[in-house]
């Protein structure tokens, strides 16, 4: 790789990774697509590329759309609930655009909601909200009309509003940290009463084991059932594990490690109208935790 290409790689890799990750919800696939894009760049006539950033974003977006099509059957065959791979913020700390990416952090709750969008809707939404492209630029990237992209964005926003049902999916580090710390304390005491006070009455817990480890196949609904689940798993965790609060996708979450390896990652979504937790997402699929580093 030439010195020029190394500079380009360092400059654009974080941006392209965050684009691919938000498009696919997979760290591994995002990394592969970024590497493939730069490999193709080294084999092309880069001197003819006038707008390198847009060129690279278009290449990554198209690869993500192709990945969506080829992986559709995997989603249909997936065992239990499918959740995006969580991303520890510290894993980006050596990238030059870290501060920019942190300012644009996408909450895990919103990443989950993006799964309700079609590939084209997701592409337009991410390019518009995460990277700030105008509709004309997005239309050129996706080979669509500007009006069509506006319609896709409007449709995406309507789906997200409907799927979110008023959930507070914005990044709220301070509020989340306080509730997460209280959640850990209540679990450590097996204090069902305290746990109920931390959860909304219609709280939902979703686990993703992917058929690789034992997990709830269906969402666990209501505060009482979620509390029963949490107090039950705590008895299994309390020995030979470490539990800590870690910044995940821009806000505090829970990481359970055994012998230095993450075995559970829990993200929370807050209720906008009360100081309680509305959703808990628990990743326990070992395949999706391979790239999770503290």
Task: Describe this entry's structure for a reader.
It comes from Brevibacillus choshinensis. Residues 9-73 form the RNA polymerase sigma-70 region domain. Residues 110-160 form the RNA polymerase sigma factor 70 region 4 type domain. Interacts transiently with the RNA polymerase catalytic core formed by RpoA, RpoB, RpoC and RpoZ (2 alpha, 1 beta, 1 beta' and 1 omega subunit) to form the RNA polymerase holoenzyme that can initiate transcription. InterPro entries: ECF_Sigma-70_Domain, NTF2-like_dom_sf, RNA_pol_sigma-70_dom, RNA_pol_sigma-70_ECF, RNA_pol_sigma70_r2, RNA_pol_sigma70_r4_t2, RNA_pol_sigma_r2, RNA_pol_sigma_r3/r4-like. The relative contact order is 0.14. This protein has helices at residues 3-24, 27-42, 52-77, 98-103, 108-113, 119-129, 135-142, 146-164, 173-188, 192-198, 223-237, and strands spanning 199-208, 220-221, 242-248, 251-258, 261-270, 277-283. The protein folds into two domains: 3-164, Butyryl-CoA Dehydrogenase, subunit A, domain 3 (Up-down Bundle), CATH 1.20.140; 173-289, Nuclear Transport Factor 2, Chain: A. It is α+β, with helices and mostly antiparallel strands and 294 residues long. α1 runs parallel beside α3 (52-77), α6 (119-129) packs across α8 and α7 (135-142) packs across α8 (146-164). Strands 2-1-6-5-4-3 form a six-stranded mixed sheet. The longest helix is centred in the N-terminal third of the chain and has 26 residues, at 52-77. The chain contains eleven helices and six strands. Residues 91-103 have low confidence and may be disordered. Helices cover 52% and strands 15% of the residues.
């Amino acid at each position: 790789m030439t010195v020029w290409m190394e500079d380009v790689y360092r400059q654009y890799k974080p941006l392209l990774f965050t684009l691919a990750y938000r498009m696919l919800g997979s760290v591994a696939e995002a990394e592969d697509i970024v590497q493939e894009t730069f490999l193709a760049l080294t084999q092309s006539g880069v001197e003819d590329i006038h707008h390198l950033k847009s060129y690279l974003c278009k290449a990554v977006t198209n690869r993500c759309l192709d990945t969506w099509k080829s992986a559709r059957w995997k989603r249909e065959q997936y065992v239990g609930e499918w959740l995006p791979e969580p991303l520890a913020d510290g894993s980006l700390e050596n990238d030059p655009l870290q501060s920019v990416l942190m300012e644009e952090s996408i909450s895990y709750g919103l990443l989950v909601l993006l799964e309700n969008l079609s590939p084209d809707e997701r592409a337009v939404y991410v390019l518009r909200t995460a990277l700030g492209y105008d509709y004309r630029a997005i239309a050129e990237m996706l080979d669509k009309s500007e009006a069509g992209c506006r319609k896709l964005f409007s449709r995406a926003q309507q789906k997200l509003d409907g799927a979110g049902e008023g959930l507070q999916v914005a990044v709220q580090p301070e509020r989340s940290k306080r509730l997460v710390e209280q959640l850990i304390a209540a679990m450590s005491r097996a204090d069902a009463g305290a746990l109920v006070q931390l959860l909304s009455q219609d709280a939902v817990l979703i686990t993703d084991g992917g058929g690789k480890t034992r997990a709830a196949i269906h969402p666990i609904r209501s505060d009482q059932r979620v509390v029963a689940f949490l107090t039950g798993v705590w008895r299994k965790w309390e020995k030979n594990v470490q539990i800590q609060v870690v910044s995940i996708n821009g806000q505090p979450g829970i990481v359970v490690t055994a012998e230095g390896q993450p075995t559970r990652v829990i993200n929370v979504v807050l209720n906008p109208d009360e100081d309680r937790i509305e959703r808990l997402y628990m990743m326990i699929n070992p395949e999706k935790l391979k790239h999770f580093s503290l």
